[in-house]
Amino acid sequence: MRRRKRGTTVAAIALSSLMVVSACAKDSGGGDSGPADASGSGCEFAPPPSAVAATSSTAATGEKVDGSALKVGLAYDIGGRGDASFNDLAAAGFDQAIRDLGVKKENSREVSAAPNEDESAKQTRLRQLASEGFNPIVGVGFAYTEALRAVAPEFPDVRFGLVDSAVEGAANVTPLVFAEQEGSFLAGVVAAYQSRKCHVGFVGGVDIPLIQKFEAGYYQGARTAAPKIRLDKKYITPAGDFTGFQDPPKGQEAAKGLIDKGADVVYPAAGASGIGVFAAVKQAGVLAIGCDADQYNQPALANNRDVIVASSLKRVDVAVYDFIRAAAKKDLASLPKVFDLKVNGVGYATSGGKIDATLQGILEGYKAQIIEGRIKVADKP
């Protein structure tokens, strides 16, 4: 019962946060930016699942929660608010808390990490927020794991949320983790059906397990839909060099390399570097799929949004909002263990009108099979 209620709450918040970020693009072969229909791709498809009605949810009324007494601290990963990706989603959840819960912006603070900064800088950032009375505090990204391992025990009464990671043994750190591979599986299905060459590509920001989850789901979805599809990948930087999340020129270079090999649909999981991926896709006249949020509606991508045919959604905004709401209620145990398709913590968006009703039905069919457990999506390539 609790899980069902959570799903409607998540869906309601997600509807108001689709103006944030994600990224997608498709190939036209001859400069035609129009989409292929479900039977017009260059791939030979496996029998699709039975179509089901598109999921719809209505906003749950729920109890009114007062967060006006909270002092909320947000510690962003590199790029901060305005990265047109991961951090902007967290910012959207914070903004939603201000609107819905009465959290006072003047009593809250947003701080950001620098690329490849020393670990002590993260500890200092979190320690300063906690010392100044901010509670709850959200570490936006796994990069804060080690810092919280050191800082959280020093402030046992402060409630910390940690996006994309967990701290073993720290009772005051709530992990906010996602089944990114499930949303990416659906992105792979879209890519297969939209590709005219049956050849798709993946650009990862940094070669780490978290981004490999996106790769694994994307490849599995594409191959499930079209078993003979060709897939190529490129990571911008190796593990340990996190500039791969904040380097649009290198993102553009990586995407161009995949396109030159023949990929006509490119899916980036690369943070702000995705901006460069979309630029390369636009220049080549092919297509892309957004990541993390509905990037078709992201203002920073307005010039290239016509190549974005769909987006996988990782609802960091929902997780941040729900964490703040649960902190206000003093009920953190109500949060899901994993934000997955079952609770609408991940999903997909089709803004732009390039996905027809047939493909929409196929996507909903695969989505239902994942939720029912008939398809198990791998989290490793």
Describe the fold and architecture:
By secondary structure, the chain is an alpha/beta fold. The protein folds into two domains: 18-49 and 180-315 and 339-372, Response regulator (Rossmann fold); 73-176, 3-Layer(aba) Sandwich (Rossmann fold), CATH 3.40.50.2300. Helix content is 36%, strand content 15%. It has helices at residues 2-15, 86-101, 119-131, 145-151, 180-194, 209-225, 248-260, 274-284, 316-329, 357-372; strands at residues 24-26, 73-76, 109-112, 137-139, 160-163, 173-176, 199-206, 230-237, 265-269, 287-290, 308-314, 346-349. Helix 3 (119-131) crosses helix 4 (145-151), helix 5 (180-194) packs antiparallel against helix 10 (357-372) and helix 7 packs across helix 8 (274-284). It is a lipid-anchor. Residues 1-25 form the signal peptide.
List the helices and strands and how they pair.
Elements: H1 2-15, E1 24-26, E2 73-76, H2 86-101, E3 109-112, H3 119-131, E4 137-139, H4 145-151, E5 160-163, E6 173-176, H5 180-194, E7 199-206, H6 209-225, E8 230-237, H7 248-260, E9 265-269, H8 274-284, E10 287-290, E11 308-314, H9 316-329, E12 346-349, H10 357-372
Parallel strand pairs: 2-3, 2-4, 4-5, 5-6, 7-8, 7-9, 9-10, 10-11
Antiparallel strand pairs: 1-10, 11-12
Helix pairs in contact: 2-9, 3-4, 5-6, 5-10, 7-8
